[in-house]
Design brief:
By secondary structure, the protein is of the alpha/beta class. About 50% of the residues lie in helices and about 10% in strands. The chain has 13 helices and 5 strands. Helix 7 links the parallel strand 3 and strand 4. About 0% of the residues have low confidence. The longest helix has 17 residues. Helix 5 packs parallel to helix 6, helix 10 packs across helix 11 and helix 11 packs parallel to helix 13. It has 2 domains: about 100 residues, Helicase, Ruva Protein, domain 3; about 160 residues, 3-Layer(aba) Sandwich (Rossmann fold), CATH 3.40.50.300.
C-alpha cells in the first residue's frame, strides 16, 4: 500500500533543493522529465515518424511550403527541431527561427543570419532581402537544398505573414531547392489569407499521443534515467493519460511533478491518487479569461 500524497504539501516546499534527493530516492541516474520532451528524448510515435517523413518529402521534392498543424503542447517545436537535425545530417542547409512577436525586419534579419549572410545589425530591409535571395540562389547553384523552419508561425503578425509569402516566392527557378515549413495551431492558421494558404503544398497534422504512446514515453524516459523497476502503477499511468489527454507537454509536466512530490512524501511507487493530487496542484484554480 503506497502512502497518499500529503494534501498540505506545497510546490514551493518540494522544489527547494529536492530534485537531487529525489534521484537517490527513486534510484535514478538523472532526472527523466524536464519541461517538455527534449529532441534527444523523442519517443518515436507513428505521428512523429510520419511528420518527419512528410518534411523529408517536401525538401526532397523541392516543394515550396508545408505546414505543421497541431494544438498547443502536442510537440510541433520538438518535431521541427528533430527535422532540423535530420536535414542537417543529410547535408541540407537549415534555418530555424521562432516567429513569436518578431517584426518584419527582425524576421528578415533572422533568416539572413541563419543562411550565413552575416548581415550588419543596422542593415535595412532591402539589403537583408538581397542577402537572403543571394544565399538561396547560391545554395541552389551548388545543388544544395535549403529549408526554412518557422516555429510559432501562428503568432506572426500580418506583416510577417506577408513575408512568408514573399519568402516562398523568393527563387522562381524551376530548379529551386528552397522549402519553408511553418508550424502553427489550426485556429491560428485558419486566419491566414488565401495568398499564403494557396502556397501550401502539404499539410502535416500532429496529434496528441494515444494511451500506448503516453505509457511508452513514460517507461522509456525512466529507463533512460536508470530506473529498471516499475515506478508508476498501472492505475497511475491510466490516470495520467486521462488527465492530460496525451498532450506531450502536459504528460511531461504532470509526470515530473508527481515524481518529485511523491519522493518528498516518501512513497515507494506512484499511484492514481498521487497523480490526481499532483494534477490538482498544477491546475488553474479557475478558467482563465481572455484579456
Amino acid at each position: 500500500m503506497t502512502k497518499a500524497l500529503t494534501p498540505t504539501l506545497t510546490l514551493r516546499g518540494i522544489m527547494e533543493d529536492k530534485r537531487s534527493l529525489s534521484l537517490v530516492h527513486w534510484g535514478l541516474e538523472r532526472w527523466p522529465f524536464r519541461g517538455t520532451p527534449r529532441v534527444d528524448q523523442l519517443y518515436p510515435t507513428a505521428g512523429l515518424t510520419e511528420a518527419l517523413a512528410r518534411i523529408d518529402y517536401l525538401v526532397d521534392g523541392r516543394r515550396r511550403m508545408g505546414v505543421i498543424l497541431g494544438e498547443s503542447g502536442v510537440g510541433k517545436s520538438v518535431a521541427l527541431q528533430s527535422a532540423a537535425r535530420q536535414l542537417e545530417r543529410q547535408g541540407r542547409a537549415v534555418v530555424a527561427v521562432d516567429a513569436t512577436a518578431v517584426t518584419a525586419r527582425e524576421m528578415a534579419w533572422l533568416v539572413a543570419c541563419g543562411l550565413g549572410a552575416g548581415p550588419h545589425e543596422d542593415a535595412d530591409v532591402a539589403k537583408l532581402w538581397r542577402q537572403i535571395a543571394d544565399r538561396v540562389v547560391e545554395n541552389r547553384l551548388q545543388q544544395r537544398h535549403t529549408a526554412l523552419l518557422v516555429d510559432e508561425a501562428g503568432q506572426a503578425g500580418p506583416d510577417v505573414i506577408s513575408q512568408f509569402v514573399r519568402l516562398a516566392r523568393l527563387d522562381p527557378s524551376p530548379s529551386a531547392r528552397w522549402t519553408i515549413v511553418l508550424a502553427a495551431e489550426p485556429e491560428q492558421a485558419a486566419r491566414w489569407g488565401r495568398a499564403l494558404r494557396n502556397l501550401v503544398d502539404l499539410r502535416i497534422d500532429l496529434m496528441a499521443w494515444n494511451a500506448d504512446d503516453t505509457i511508452g514515453y513514460i517507461q522509456m524516459a525512466l529507463l533512460d534515467a536508470g530506473r529498471m523497476e516499475p515506478l508508476f502503477e498501472d492505475d497511475a499511468l491510466t490516470a495520467l493519460y486521462r488527465l492530460t489527454q496525451g498532450v506531450p507537454r502536459q504528460v511531461v509536466r504532470l509526470a515530473d511533478f508527481a515524481l518529485l512530490a511523491s519522493a518528498a512524501a516518501g512513497m515507494t511507487t506512484i499511484d492514481a491518487v498521487t497523480i490526481e493530487a499532483a494534477h490538482d496542484e498544477l491546475a488553474w484554480p479557475i478558467e482563465a479569461a481572455a484579456y
